[in-house]
Amino acid sequence: MLLRPAAKTTALLTAGLVVPALLTSMLAAPPAAGEPTAPAGATSVSTPDRADRAARAWLARGLSVDERADRLAAVMTREEKLQLFEANPSTPIPELGVPARKEKDGCCGVSLADAAETPTTGLPKSISLAATFNQRLARRYGLQIGREAWRTGFAGVTAPTSDLIRTPHFGRRGESFSEDPLLAGRLPAAVVEGVQQQPGVYSLAKHYVGNHQETSRQGVNQVIPERALHEIYARPWEHIVRSADPGAVMCAFQQVNGEYACANDHLLEDILKGAWNFPGWVSSDFNACPDYTAYTRGVDVCAPDLGSASVEQALADGTLSERRFEDMVHRILRTFFAQGVIDNPPPGTLDVPSQDVPGGLVPAFMLDEGARLARRVAGQGAVLLKNSARLLPLSPDDSVALIGPDADRYIDMFGSPSVPNPGRLSTIVDGVTGRSEAEVTHRPGGDTTRYGDTLGGAAPVPSGVLAPSGADGGQRGLRASYFLGFQGDNPRGAELVRVEDQVNHRTGTGGLIGFFGLNPSPAPLIPLPFAVQPMTALYEGTLTPAVTGTYRLGVRGMGTFRLAVDGQTLVARDQVGLQDHLEPIRLEAGQEYDIRLTYQPDAPRQCCGADVPGPTVRLAWEPPSADASPQIREAVQAAAQADVAVVVASTLEGEAADLHSLQLPQDQDRLIRAVARANPRTVVVLATGGPVLTPWLGRVGALLEAWIPGEQQGRAVADVLYGDVNPGGKLPVTFPASESQPREIGVENPSLQFNVPNPTTTFTEGVNVGYRGYDTRRLRPRFPFGHGLSYTTFGYSRLQVRDPRGRVDGRVSVRVRNTGRRTGTEVVQVYHGRLPNASTPPRQLVGWARVTLRPGRSTTVRIPLRTGRSDRLLAYWKVTGNRQGGRWVTPEGRVPIYVGSSSRDIRLTGTLRLD
Q1: Cβ-based neighbours of 834, under 8 Å, separated by 6 or more
Q2: What is the pLDDT of residues 171-193, one digit of tens each?
Q3: Where is the secretion signal located (predicted)?
Q4: CATH no. for residue 824?
């Protein structure tokens, strides 16, 4: 993640307050370590020639990008070369025409958190793009990002996020693409191509490699078997590097097999720069280099702490050879020439001093183009998971109860994938209201989602039953008072007092990211400095239940908490790990109960700094019925009076936080059940970053996965609900049927390592990731990989398989017919079976084709089976010699071929022969 301290953080620093390691690390570099090495690189340092500088020989026509880079390097002074390694943004060298190395987060749109006056396009998140299975659309997606990055003054964008989705609990699943390495390679590669179609912009693809959990991401060691490393996790990157040639690659925070990814010579030197011959540069994630010896192990830019001063020190003490230094310089300059950064510098990148502010505005016509693209991607990526009795598409004449706490706001992720200032916003309330010709009534049904919801567990007590102490004007929630220091049960001298709708907080690194303007939720965060210092919080008010019954009331959290009801202690804990502590209590409807909760985050390793839990507390409950929430009751009443109910169920996900549970947060499961009881014509729209549990599936008429659908979410969702767009999206990930199913295939929930220092995650499932694992273990998921319904139907026939011969690819052809009454799009998927004489998964994706047909029409689709090194189809990695030795093997013999509409909906089978 590429961030700079916000103004408010700078103010705290100048005020002399203690700040977390995340912020202080921006100002202090780790000590040097290691022994001198002399890796291979470019030519040795030369003395600049003033005549050559004047002649500007690097601008001569007919030169290759390598020759141009060499000629420019030859006239640069040592000081000028060192400037290339400064923190983002670097200092430009205008007299040589070298712009600043100025980069911005932009996986799903350019993220300008510090420039509210500069809107950019908020595209649907990458998983939505992956669900389209549309590489052409992915290139257009990347081009929009590249164009807007250039317009706003950035030469590099950290796009795409190319982390394979190993676990459905992965906090960054929404900004990633797929659990399948082929889909997770081809779609990001197309995005890279699109970004780099814009002259003057390069793609900084992330996070190579092993970035598959956010929990303890700066200390976790991912133990990945060599075969799985090549077949599953490195394979998408090989396709990205070989076919799309990104200007730069970002290495990850994690350790891989005992070495940090940003100091891992096997990953960086042996594979990326060696086997794949990657010519660009490797940049670290934010302070992800353990020390400056990383420069000798394959990293070219360590940012921001280990910048130019560290490079200079490494050269001075002999850790870094001149040859390696010149190689680093060459790689940066080569990308600058290859991607047109020097020939077409973004606005402001030649200005001195260079600042991390936009170089210009995105023009209105470009924002309009972005809005149309966002709507198209969201529509094509929406996946229809269920449609009983053809409830969808809706009739415009149906009155609608539109329900959901986030249906009337911009649904986005937090952290680097966030696009805080969308240029053309349409909420789901806007979209449905604009499309329907009947009455549309919106009821939230609960409180908005927030970062604290990633903690899972018992639901937070909703604002609808809470009132703050001393409040007037109908405020809902509790009075929150914050004190510096661990003060016990009777704190004194509040530094801050405010009303909060819920007690539902998580801090840590992800919470701190919110102070950079990268948290879209309007819910309150524990403010600075309390989020990063020893503190005590006091929450006071009343709870007025709506129904009489036995409740379970208490706290989910870590640290010391004391909960009193009407002056009597209900829960008192000094909690080391994260747990629920709920106690039964009889409450009467309409009666006010005094609530007093004191809290301090004083568990071991909890406070304070980066990559630690920080304040973690929730006032939680399990009510006797849905009627206990006035907000749910209002939603149910609206649903009962409407022709159809549409529930928008959402999550808030992002950086530095894996999901503790796949259940919907904010008691939305209870909300959906209650609405479905009131109206059998209930549609659920999921606005989530990935799979969730659906325990109410049998009670609702239709289910649509809209993912995190971008700035045009309202119009795009309405397009699908009303049939203006026939859903053609397919799941790029498996939806498990239970919380335990991923564990059954060998994938533990990474959030179980919450507050575990330097944990180890062992990839015991090997190559059986995602649907491969479900097939191997013969488990039935809720929805399989590749699944997606339509408002029409398709028939398959006439399968033909052409075997590969030498350098001629194999091919599968099949006749597809639209057998329904609507025009629609089908994604024909081809899988191969077990390879001969090898232990491989039962099915693996080898290709697909999108086809759009009018009713009654048919066509023959032809899907090539490319066996080249970019895709590594029909081959497996055979480990030989030592732990890191091995080679790709394409065995000889017959291989089953499966063609269908999903990994479990196989329509035709055939056989391919490998010689």
Answers
A1: 840, 841, 842, 895, 896
A2: 999 999 999 999 999 999 999 99
A3: 1-28
A4: 2.60.40.10
